Amino acid sequence: MEFQTIGKSIWRIDGEKKVRGQALYTIDLKKDGMLHGRILRSPHPHARLRRVDTSAAAKFPGVHAVISRDDFPEGGPLSPYFGRRTKDKTVVALDKVRHVGDVVAAVAAVDLETADTALRLIEVEYEELPVVSDPVAAIAPGAPQLFEHLAEFKNNICHHTSLKHGDVEKGFEESDVVLEDTFRTPVTQHCHLEPHMALAWFDEHGRLIVHTGTQTPFGVRKSLAEIFQMAEEKIRVIVPYVGGAYGGKSHLKVEHLAATLAWKAKRPVRIQLRREEVFLTVTKHASVVRMKTGAKRDGTLVARLVELYYDTGAFAENGPNVVHKATLTSPGPYRIPHIQADGYCILTNKPSAGAFRGYGVPQVALAYETHMDMLAERLGIDSVELRIKNLLREGDRHPTGITMHSVGYEELLRKLGGEIHLEARRKGRGKKRRGKGIACMIKASNTETQSEAKVQANRDGTFTVFSATVEMGQGAETVMAQIAAEELGVPLKGVAFIPQRPDTDLTPFDAMTTASRSTFCMGNAVRRAAKNLKEKFFEFAADLMEISSQDLRVENGRVFAAGAAARGFTYKELAARHFSHNQNELIGSGFYGDEEDAKTVLPFWLVGGCAVEVEVDTETGAVKLLKLVGGADAGKAINPRLCEGQVRGDATIGIGQALLEELKFIDGQPVNASFLHYPLPSFQDVPDDFPVLLVEQPHKDGPFGAKGLAESALPAVPAAIANAIYDAVGVRIQELPITPERVLRALTEK
Amino acid sequence: MEFQTIGKSIWRIDGEKKVRGQALYTIDLKKDGMLHGRILRSPHPHARLRRVDTSAAAKFPGVHAVISRDDFPEGGPLSPYFGRRTKDKTVVALDKVRHVGDVVAAVAAVDLETADTALRLIEVEYEELPVVSDPVAAIAPGAPQLFEHLAEFKNNICHHTSLKHGDVEKGFEESDVVLEDTFRTPVTQHCHLEPHMALAWFDEHGRLIVHTGTQTPFGVRKSLAEIFQMAEEKIRVIVPYVGGAYGGKSHLKVEHLAATLAWKAKRPVRIQLRREEVFLTVTKHASVVRMKTGAKRDGTLVARLVELYYDTGAFAENGPNVVHKATLTSPGPYRIPHIQADGYCILTNKPSAGAFRGYGVPQVALAYETHMDMLAERLGIDSVELRIKNLLREGDRHPTGITMHSVGYEELLRKLGGEIHLEARRKGRGKKRRGKGIACMIKASNTETQSEAKVQANRDGTFTVFSATVEMGQGAETVMAQIAAEELGVPLKGVAFIPQRPDTDLTPFDAMTTASRSTFCMGNAVRRAAKNLKEKFFEFAADLMEISSQDLRVENGRVFAAGAAARGFTYKELAARHFSHNQNELIGSGFYGDEEDAKTVLPFWLVGGCAVEVEVDTETGAVKLLKLVGGADAGKAINPRLCEGQVRGDATIGIGQALLEELKFIDGQPVNASFLHYPLPSFQDVPDDFPVLLVEQPHKDGPFGAKGLAESALPAVPAAIANAIYDAVGVRIQELPITPERVLRALTEK
Q1: Bridge-partner residues for B201, per DSSP?
Q2: CA distances from A716 to A146, A392, A719, B537, B619 (A)
Q3: What is the dihedral angle through the alpha carbons of B57, B63, B65, B67, rounded to the nearest 10 degrees?
Q4: Which of A361, B77, B107, B191 fits B118 for a cystine, CB–CB 3.0-4.6 Å?
Q5: Of B165, B93, B563, residue with least CA distance to B314
Q6: What pLDDT shows up at residue A423?
């Protein structure tokens, strides 16, 4: 199949606007008469609320509204509860605060200074409670309980997933080699440059309007509908361009506070979090992963036991889903007859951990890919070959029961190895030693979620794609336009796609822009919508030409008779003919995720990997990346440049997570929640030699074979770096970040 | 057929919002960073533009943009031309100015004061030209020409409609009585309390966004697309509540100026016209109508000759359509074998006349209904009986070829006569004499225009109606909700209709909110959309219940099996079931005005009348209205209270036109273009006794039998009053307004 638009590295539609500074983000929005909201947050990691008195703040000149638990009386107009699975969160704390930064009250005032002053006038009496901030300690008998009243959160465990396949004990008995190790990763944060921000108001019809940089406009709408106890459709969520998200902007973050203040003040309210507040709003799960791996002498994997202890902080948030997904793929992309994996999502007195690029996989990939490297060394097998020997292959059944499909691991691993000449090692001898490492990863998609799209023919022959996929830097706007253009048979260049941004009133339902799902799920919806519209054009043209629409073809925006190319009409001509008689919409609809899809569509796997060459300074412990190659199976790269950008960006976050990042807490108190103290990777930290490798194993159900790939590199990066460090200096670091201190300590203890 | 919602005087949906001052109008809108626009207008009625120099204004601090003819070079990005039929208007004057108030330039500045100052810095050199301000003088040989370069506007005639039926000369020969008179009406103005206003900007995607209180959102979009030479769909027109319109807010009025300034300034621009500018922007056609009527001794009408000279001011605007429509119904609602009518739309150096409630009919109704009264007197026949004798009746062919249907004139005339006890005259003897008068009218609809609507089922079982019909005070929002509720079978009360206002991105195409067309055209579209959605629900319910959807009924929001009412589901339950599995839209679509409709739908006639009792002060000439009854055939009154409000409001404008209003010009210079000097009817001028009569002759194609009625009273009011004055004091006033001076002069000359 030859493509016109698919597979071409077309420049992104939003590129020029962004480069010129014209693109608007939520942060750019203002509304006439708007107030500024500020939030009073708990200074304690765990405390009972004795008294919250907002009366002085409410009276302060310039203050229009103060909200606290007093605004949520039993049976009142607002319900304070929300949450992804369990409604464990409240708009403001009701009885207890459970982490530093937990929301106690909020103020809307004419300016930020007034709001800040008013915050200081709110009197709060706390009764401090014992704090638990380690996930393993939190599940020990006698640990302080975060939710005494919720039976489902007993022992601070808010979720447990178990994956069982074969008989793992028997497997270890049959193994020639057994490894058993513990791996640790810290709390990190998404660090999207645009902080959480929302601008909300109630319009004259009583509708709630919210502008917010969310990844989940329809999810925000649903949760707000629950809080305000009104029809979802009475709420309108509008999403401008989003300045980075990585999972940190899904579901309610700040929207409910802006909306509640707007409700009380009867004025628009804007809340923009300060950076410190962003750190306290959502984080990535710290983890302790225990892994036991058994293999035959020839390298055949026999058994794997995994225990995942994920620190989800003070509320369940997305944690249960993260742990569930992570547990199911925790054995890695390998054929292992005996598997037992248990994942625990554990509450502690820290800020909530939620979705973060990779969705729990990086924590386990560090474990399984370190074990593959250890095994290869132990058995004297090439580490690429060992992996390839054990891979789950096309047609295999994953332990979850899903058939493996579009999994280009072998090609990817060989190419990754080739890129860094894994076979040719030159470690050096001096203080600076070089090493090479490789790793791969597997992550499940969430293709069971739904997306709807529309494609509209405009009066001048151009088209508009209506898709609620959020453009947060990934290039979805461009990819959707390419998919629509290909299906319609029009050149993208020269055919203006009039943009429609996500707006729950305008763009049909989309589950969310997360989990690398958009190209697959929304891509299918857009393709179907384009097809539906194309068919309408075909029927119209067939009528005009008095032939069957079956006999029509389209190319370069022109519909013509197969075998008689001179007979035909351009879309522009057809649109003009339609609109010269009728002004009703010429629109195609496409829905992905119905019952039929659920029965027939094979979910896709994120297939990725990383190869790296490092130089370790044995005197300082510093690790320098000489070369890093990120790779992924794109299924079909709709736009190779955008795919490469995604993989490179993903790998860059991986570098931060591997070597630098940790949000530190002392007794539940964050100590480095600022960009000054929290170390993010800069240009100094990424290698000059930083290529991206794409392989393409078309997915039978993906639009034009495509699938998601935006989380394919990150999870493999820490393991690849750790493996390269071992290759360089012979020490295994099993805890992130791999700081110079940790390397040096390991070298010293060696 | 028993209705649940139709025919009930439900309180209007927008009522509370408006009473509480919560409803937003364009005038309430502001946009962050917006500039204020002001317009430089010609002080001369006719002049050549020698020089327009904006350089000093452009340099003035605080000025962001000045536009003049220099911004429209040949082949430039903007086309200056627009217009309803002929593109005779330009954004700013290019070579000539043609009326006082013609737009020469415009300025956008940080505030109004700066903009006003900048206007004074624009240097314009005019070469004054001879002025023509009377329509009859304008078509005389040698009159100054407004458009030398447009052949189609030769002799200042921009349109001529001719209606011929039978042989009018022969008819007069056969007549026993022949009347011949000339009637005159002045320029008046709509005087909507909310002035013209627009707020426009280009968004970061290059789309043009315009908020404006227009009656024609899609018309504005189309014209702007021509000026900016971009796809219509790249422009978004949003219409909040409109504070009165009456035809004065159709098509471009101020939107193009705000948009052009925004384009040049690269900032949002708000323009709100001052009241004087409103008077100079659009008016109602002054007219000279010559009418010759021939009848048999028994009152049978035989022949009618009509000449209409309509003063359309400096540009064609809507004039050609107004004159066309007025000419076609100028013989009145009567069966006349011989007819000749010629309507001329004539250019003069006055502000443009456009659409105005009644659309050219009031000018001719004054003529034909005065003649009916004169004839009745002359022949000694009761004036109601004379009319009834000659009426066009159900099934008759109108001279235009359209079949008469839903024309309840006889019932209406008898009831109107009864209301004022026309038979019982008590004129009085002193200085104050009383008299009674009656009149009716006919106006054609424009049902050939198109409307599309959607009805959406919301997740909580409520519904949303998507209709671009503009709510400008007439109550359309409520009527559309009633139609949808009736068709769906849900109670309006208790079922929230979530409002969606007109927005060209959100609500499907609607031709316009004019000509009393909305209840009929959009009403049909809404009903079809509701039916389409109902059918989807029926199919879904039929599947669940395993019966045929044919066997389903709906009542009170519950779908059930015919004959087994216990088996069924509420819409709420069905919506919940749908959305628990699928998140795709549950929407019904309805389109009115396609080819099928064009073939089968019978256009409707506006059928109305007025009866009045007056008291004339013979010393001062003052006319006091003791009682006025407005009446109309509603087809079926969807909401009787709203119908009555429409008829009463319409009659009130008629009172103003009959007795008070005239926008005066001296040599093309307006002399009373302000609310201080232009006399509008106040509560003192409307009678205490002011009932409304509705008759209902269901229209076969109207939604539930309904049709438009909002222009049914006004055209009959001046004739009814003139007839009553004759009845009181024996003088015929044939020129509006009927001021005390005119009455007194007539009494003196008698």
Answers
A1: B209
A2: 34, 17, 6, 50, 102
A3: -30
A4: B107
A5: B93
A6: 82
Q: Which of A6-10, A241-245, A354-358, B500-504 has the lowest mean pLDDT?
A: B500-504
Secondary structure in 3-state letters for B662-727: CCCEECCEECCCCCCCCCCCCCCCCCCECCEEEECCCCCCCHHHCCCCCCCCHHHHHHHHHHHHHH
Beta-carbon contacts of residue A363 (< 8 Å; ≥ 6 apart) = A183, A185, A285, A287, A289, A308, A310, A326
In chain A, the residue whose alpha carbon lies closest to the alpha carbon of B591 is A584
**Quick check: B232 and A460 CB within 8 A?**
yes
Across the interface, whether the CB atoms of B233 and A462 are under 8 A apart is answered yes
Rounded CA Rg of chain A: 27
Specify whether the CB–CB gap between A524 and A467 falls below 8 A: no
Q: What is the CATH number of domain B130-189+282-390?
A: 3.30.365.10
Contact B459 A232 (CB under 8 A): yes
Give the closest-approach CA distance of B341 to chain A in angstroms: 31
Residues A278-290 pLDDT 10s:
999 999 999 999 9
| Among candidates A22, A32, A509 on the partner chain, residue whose Cβ is nearest the Cβ of B204 | A22
For A15-23+448-600, the fitting CATH number among 1.10.260.40, 3.30.365.10, 3.30.70.1110, 3.40.190.10 is: 3.30.365.10
**CB distance B509–A585 less than 8 Å?**
yes
Quote the minimal CA–CA distance from A549 to chain B in Å: 22
Please judge whether B500 and A505 are an interchain contact, meaning their C-beta atoms are less than 8 angstroms apart: yes
Cα B166 to Cα B19, B149, B335, B340, distances in angstroms:
54, 38, 12, 8
Q: What does the H/E/C string look like for B145-181? A: CCCCCCHHHHHHEEEEEEEEECCHHHHHHHCCEEEEE
B288, B289, B290, B291 alpha-carbon torsion, rounded to 10°: -160
Residues 207-266 of B with CB under 8 A from A: 207, 218, 225, 231-234
Mark yes or no for CB contact B594/A582 under 8 Å: yes
User: Per residue in A421-476, pLDDT tens?
Assistant: 988 877 777 899 999 999 999 999 988 899 999 999 999 999 999 999 999 999 99
Nearest CB partner across the interface for A232, out of B31, B458, B509: B458
Q: What is the pLDDT of residue A493?
A: 72
The residue type at B580: S
Per CATH, domain A32-129+212-230+238-266 is 3.30.70.260: no
**SS3 call for B483:** helix
For residue A458, what is the nearest residue in chain B, using CA coordinates? B233
